[in-house]
Every structure is written in C-alpha cells, then in structure tokens.
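Changelog entry

Holo records now carry the ligand SMILES as an explicit input line rather than a separate metadata file. Below, a converted record for zinc ion, shown in the new format.
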Amino acid sequence: MIETVHIDMTREALGSRMSPRAIEIVIAANLKQDSLRGQFGHDEYHFDNNAFEKSYAYVTEQRGYVLASLMSPGVLSAWIAFGKLTHAVQDFYSHTNYISMWIDQHNGTPPPPPEIDPVRKDIIESPDMYSAKIYLPWDALYFVPFMRKLSIKFLPKDSHGRMNLDSPKQGPLFEYARAAAIKRTVHEFEILEKMLPPEMLTKFVDL
Ligand SMILES: [Zn+2]
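Structure line, unchanged by the conversion:
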C-alpha cells in the first residue's frame, strides 16, 4: 500500500490504544519496509510471491521481538518490531486474493467494507489463496508513473501490478482492503494485549 494509506490506517487502528510518540515510531518502522532495500528480496515484508509460510513466520518472529524487547530496559525496539509486523499484515490485503475470495462468498451482494472479517480461517487456509508474483521487468516498470499503463498490458493476472490494491485509484476493492487492514492491525494489537503481562503492556502502550 502507498505511504499515506499505511499512515492513516495505522493511526486509525492504534490512535486510541498507544501514545502519540509510540505510534510515530510504529509508523516509521512500518514505512521503512517499503524502502528500496525492503522492496526486493523481502517477500515476507509484504506477503508477495506466495511466500505465505515465510511471511507468517516473520509476523510471529516480530511478535516475539516485541516481547523480548520489553524484557529489557528500552521500549523503542518493541515499537519498531510491531511497526514491521503491522506493515506485513496490512499488505496481506492488498497483495493477496483474500478480498476477492471474501467478496465471492457473498454472491454479488457483499456487505459494506466495514463489515469485512479480516481473519476468516477458511479463506486464510484455503488452497485457492495466492499472492502477487513479481514479474520483471514489468512489475518494476509499474512503479514508474508514466510506464504504469503500458506495464499493466504485459502483466499476467497474478502479477503484483495487476493484483495491487494499494491506493483508492485501484477501484472499489481497495476500500475492502483498507477496512480489513485496519481491523487486522487492531487484531494484532489485541493479540499482544492478551500475551503481555500487565506491566509490559503498560510500557508498550505508553499512555
Ligand atoms: Zn509493502
């Protein structure tokens, strides 16, 4: 998803749950995953290239870092780990076919975006799930604004460029991806809420 979308979604999900300075660090770490170094060779940051196992392992690992960091005196690295985790789970909805599978289950009349369930086990575990593949060079050219239209012509259906629900420009499915990503971010926060001992949680939320 594009920067402004990640920022707004993270604020919307965590604004009332964590301190402003904590959220700023979470957002900075979230956005850093889309730097050039994070874009290529790191499918697990964005649920790209069908790297589901690797991506889930990455999310679990970052959750572990949150806990481990909170056991030491500082709190910064816990916020950074959570920021990385939020990026991956948010991208899940813009780079996989989760949204179209959820909509397909409603026979042409899907409920409005805020009603989406972001963690339907039957969809997540379905053998029909797939995520965006990077087809070079066209998927790289997709990111060059004046080449976008041309690259779309050459990209297959399961390509990053064609599947991408990263901004409102991508049509009506984007609002579902956005709503699901916000709910999923809250869901990830709630996992930590249950997992962390009270004093660690207080340190983490920083309110
Ligand atoms: Zn990303």
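Spot-checked after migration. The chain has 13 helices and no strands. The chain has one domain: 3-129+164-205.
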